[in-house]
## 1
Amino acid sequence: MNLFEQAQKDRQEKESPLAARMRPRTLDEYIGQEHIVGPGRLLRRAIQADQLGSIILYGPPGTGKTTLAKVISNSTNSHFITLNAVLSGVKDIREAVADAQERANLYAQRTTLFIDEVHRFNKAQQDALLPWVENGTVIFIGATTENPYFEVNKALVSRSRIFQLLPLQPDHIRKIILQALHNSERGYGKLHIEIDDDALDHLVNVANGDARAALNALELAVETTGPPASQSASQPVSQSPIHITLEIAEESIQQRAVLYDKEGDYHFDTISAFIKSLRGSDPDAALYWMAKMVYAGESPRFIFRRMIIFAGEDIGMADPNAISVAMACAQAFEYVGLPEGRFHLAEAAIYLATAPKSNSAFAFFDALTHVKEEADSGVPNHLRDANRDKEGFGHGEGYLYPHAYRDHWVAQQYLPTSLQGKLFYQPSDQGYEARIRHEVARKREAQLAAMLAQEVDSPGHDAAGVGIEVFTFSPDDPARERWLQRTVSNAGAHLGQLRDRVLDNARLSRHSLVLDLKAGSGLLTWEAVRRTPEGGVYALAHSSRDAEALRQMAAQLNELERPFVVEGTAAQLPELYTRSADNLPQLPQQFDALVGHNALLEQPAKAAFIGMLRAHLLPAGRLSLAERIAKQNQRLYNLVELAELDADLCSRLQQAEEAIYADDDDPLVNWDAPTLIAALEKEGMTVTHQIENDAQQVQITEALLARWFAPKGAAKPSYAQHLSAYLSPAEIDQVATLFKRQLLNKTIEWKAQTLYLQVENLR
């Protein structure tokens, strides 16, 4: 560089904007981003040691990306080349690489290549840079306001360390403004500037984390404000006070800079926050995020389009009117336009945010999955088109026309035979769906009853000789029985809610040690594994079969992620600690959480058992259980109308069943929630509990009735065996006949109670 070039450079620096002149030159001058350049941080250590590798600086405008690159330039011994991706191309990259190679060969000097706005490079330009970054010819520093994982070549990203810069805090902006006011060399330190506190607060607030915006506003305020009219003409200009008031500050920066780009991260993040606020029924947050989009210039049509989608996806049948409101507001906006059209934006957002929510429309995608994965079993004959080939093939024969029946509905088969009983649509308990839920369930029960009917028309032949299609069902098929009960009761959803509640009550953290007291099928175990990726989960399997099943399922996980499966019961914990078999994992002495589902049912002294378990909790540990209160089980005599029986038999039937739940020697029924809670509190335990009444739909089948009225000799006493202490065999047969006549193939509501119990180990 000759003298003329140096003089021109000095003049440009002197005449450059305040924001450019005030760029920090060293790390000590750099303000903000302590999370990456604070004392002891990796980036700061690398800069100070001049051992910096390729990096990408990612963050909003005005957060110091280019400034940090300049600081690195001043702190390194390597040759520093700066390119702007907006103005540069492959030719400039090749020239920079050639310069780097020459310096490496002649002077053994490294070269750092800084590319501002690197996301502006197209794929070919980024590919041209990649080989030289990979072989170390240049150390690459990129700056971008766009997410590098989406906008920068993946190979380039993989060879660079990414540092994210955050919007500057108000204290940072305040320090930057004051630094500019006091710096005599590059700022306004030689001038006598007085700035009111409220004016300074305005500059800080409206800059919104953008240092460049704050300095530009300060420069405008200073350069357009002269000395007071009373100022003496003989007083030097440098001594003339310049008074920056709130009014001047407001004229210098009138509108807050909003971080929003209609094609970048802020666009997607903001619309995501808007939709999630609608889904969370928070109208205030929804209006805020929508206002941010409108303020930044987002197209209202885009916002309306997303609200129309939301009305179908997240509100759906809970309020079928929601989509009408969204469409009407969108159409009104088209007529009115801005600015008055904002009322219709607000109306739609408020309606959707406050409407009941249901995502039951996702049932379609469940059906779509079945269509893709399952073999086509064809359209049932009675649903086929009868207009073309009724005479030849009998298509449509047997179809029942719903309008010819009461309430314009009749039970008949509509799904393919292989999917009979399959539920896709699950009405929620919100809004409109809450009103139709019972009716949908009632009709499904009738459909199932029709499907399971044992008496069907004799399978003759029609005139064309085509056999009539009859759906048959064998009550002796146990797999079919289990499938039917799952379909009707939706037990999976119920257990999923129970699982989540137990683990939520346990207050697990990522590093918790957890013991599942009764692992069984792994209901709690697998979710605990997901919730504690940095902790450990131990599962007590009460039988060899359960233990083996859990180990086989665990084998699908990475070895470090697997739960430790121990065969034994919670009551055997003291004994398990003394076992020395090679294949047994070493149990920790204490855990952050003990969890269990029906872990107390077989324990005769439940309070003492819980006291024993507390010894295996760490201080501040927590026991979380879900226990079925068997004493409150559904009474079978309440499922039928007993008027057909004489009064004495009715009384003895009720007495016999109540005796089942009054057995003090049976640990399943010798307790209830109040007595257990009282016993625990008497022992000085800190107890929290909730009692939930729930009901599941149960299909009464031949197999279920057979188990209830099984004769003596079964593994466990049947209902009939319990009745035998009060009823004669003939009377039991009479009761069985009554149950079969009134309940067979019906869906009943099975009522139960569950105790959710939490005991804290406050020691």
## 2
Amino acid sequence: MLEVDDTGVESRTIAEVQASTRFLLNSFKAKMAELKKCGPEISAMLRFGVDFKAAASTAERFFGADSVGYLAIDGTKSVDQLLDLIVFYVGAFAYSGTVTFSEGGVEVGSPRATDEGLSASAAIPLSEEDAAHIFGQKHESGVEVDPERLPNVLMQVAEYYLAYRGLTGGSTCSIVLLDRTLAGDVAHLVWSTRDFIRDRECVLEGIDTPSGKVTALDLELARMLLPNPELVTPAPRSQLLKFAAVLELFGGESLTARDLVERLGADPKWAGRLNDDLVELERQFGGFEQISPAFKLKPGASAYWDRVLDATLAVARHVFAPNGGHPLLVKKGGSERWVTADDLDFMVLVLIRALTRKAWVEGILPIGFTKDTNAFEFVNTVVPILGRAGLIDSVRKFPNFNSDKMLLQTNSVVNAADIPTPWYTPEIDASFRTMAPVDDPELAAGSARVNGAFENVIYQERVYLKSYIQLWSSDSSPSVRSHVFTYDRPVYPGHDHWDEVALFNKDGPADVKILPVLHFQRGSSLTNMVMAMLTEMGKEVIPEALGHNYPLFLADKKAKSILEETRQAYLGAVAIEMAKSDLDQQVLFSRRFRDYRSQIEGRRRGS
């Protein structure tokens, strides 16, 4: 028998681990030393404190009242396996209360759990043979099945669906807090659903609604169009130009590409590409009555959003209230069709868009409040742009941390005496995440050049903005402080501005001007109001909630508590139905080989 000297392997492994650990610790010490040197520069990027008097005035102007209701929504999920069945559970639950703004401060009413009517949950059994079709992801080497993908996206649907429901039907709530990043989810889903929509695989296509059947063009427009004339969205540039043109064609006129470019104020050099893009749009999705050289949409095209939203809400209602059927099987065209993870991804995008539209029209404030983020656009993109535009004097290279949050968190501890809480970074446009700074010394002050970070594509500006915040620190020991969090929200005309920096992007035949939101030299009154509210919500004296958001903390606890209460019940119900079935039970005992092998190895070790 071959003998192996385990002692040498063990000692070598220990030595390697020790050396690697020393390297990491020394590297971190070096970064902390650098932070002490550049602490004043980082502090110059931060904004400190809140003005409660100004917050009260803003609330009156924004909401039309000094006291409004809020909803805090969080969700939970689980995955279990019973023989050949995978059982998923998702749920989203809410706490509600009131926020009252006054010159002396902000009063947050005690959060209370909402009734069962304002919740969304589902326990969904699936056989392994259906798993690849429903939530598998296609790759060149085949289909990859990740069991966590379905519950993750179902939980997103549950939370956004609950948020939309909570703000409709005579609701008195004007603020909704989500443990999500609105901007991050949208930016990801706009592109991840592109091929899915173009391949005509979405379950929503063909669904009957009061405004007619959902068409392929409806889905493509819902994916990309989030119009707001006051914000000039979509901007008439690059990949967005054809959608701005479609918006112009909703009036029913027949217009050439040159007519459209002139009306939209786009660079005339884009006329040829716009003509080709509109011809390609018709080839892929249809919907045009007339194409090239003049374009005209079919009647009813402008109702695309009503159709897509109605279909999305109908499928969501079925998922969370299937009335005896399977939550992921919907009737369509006389047959049943599975709702896949790709379908659910697109539904998440539609629901976020619906929240944003409602926010703009009805003066509602949705806030995404996230604990963990690996984003790094503030340090890697915004700070260099500020330097190139001449808005800051020095651009010292900050230590290389893995994320903005990690740098800001560590800096707040290392330089604690100079960083009182609450503080926040200037709000930045979500589109900065898709930009890469480029040197161009010929540009005037207040301007900078950028490329798209991937294939020169830059996400739509003036839709969402974000900020990093820290809400609490100890009076007696300033280095003891809460985590750095991130919030994002929609951009609002009349409250936010986009005149501090002009960015230029060389795209095809044109040098495109981009005006993103940046609250660096001047703040926003809405930022101050949001910070006043979040600061008050982060004061609850519970260690794990201190400096976080107490209503969201309670919603999270409720979601996990309900999962614990119901998990054994729904798993037991599945087990009973399997036992009652006249299906040959041996079929269900055909486990995967890796499960079988693990069981045998476990028995061998036990003996």
